[in-house]
Design goal:
The protein has 96 residues and is an alpha+beta fold. It has a single domain, classed as Gyrase A, domain 2, CATH 3.30.1360. It has three helices and four strands, in the order αββαββα. The protein has helices at residues 7-15, 38-55, 82-95, and strands at residues 21-22, 29-34, 60-64, 67-72. Strand 3 (60-64) and strand 4 form a beta hairpin. Helix 2 packs antiparallel against helix 3. The chain is globular, with a radius of gyration of 13 Å. The relative contact order is 0.26.
């Protein structure tokens, strides 16, 4: 089981992320992305999906044409974990 991030470790980890916001009423983070078109959005999602599968850590997400919204939380930890921070950093690197 993955440990939930708490205290100073949580604050420091969240401080390393840009543009991710807390989800109201949940121990989760969210970020919205916009691309030029559906093809770019789908390509982004494919890259994230491959990394998520390899890490055995899958995001909650939605896609409408060129927009993708991602929510990260580790269900077996009951909230945010290091897995979420790592995946968020990877996601941001794909967009950069």
């Amino acid at each position: 089981m993955t440990a939930k991030l708490t205290g100073k470790a949580r604050s420091q980890a969240l401080g390393t992320l840009k543009g991710w916001t807390k989800v109201a009423g949940r121990d989760a983070i969210r970020k919205k992305f916009q691309f030029a078109d559906f093809n770019q959005a789908w390509g982004f999602m494919t890259r994230v999906a491959l990394a998520a599968e390899k890490a055995d850590h899958h995001p909650e997400w939605s896609n409408v044409y060129n927009r993708v919204e991602i929510v990260l939380s580790t269900h077996d930890a009951g909230g945010l974990s290091a897995k979420d921070i790592e995946l968020a950093k990877f996601i941001d690197s794909v967009v950069a």
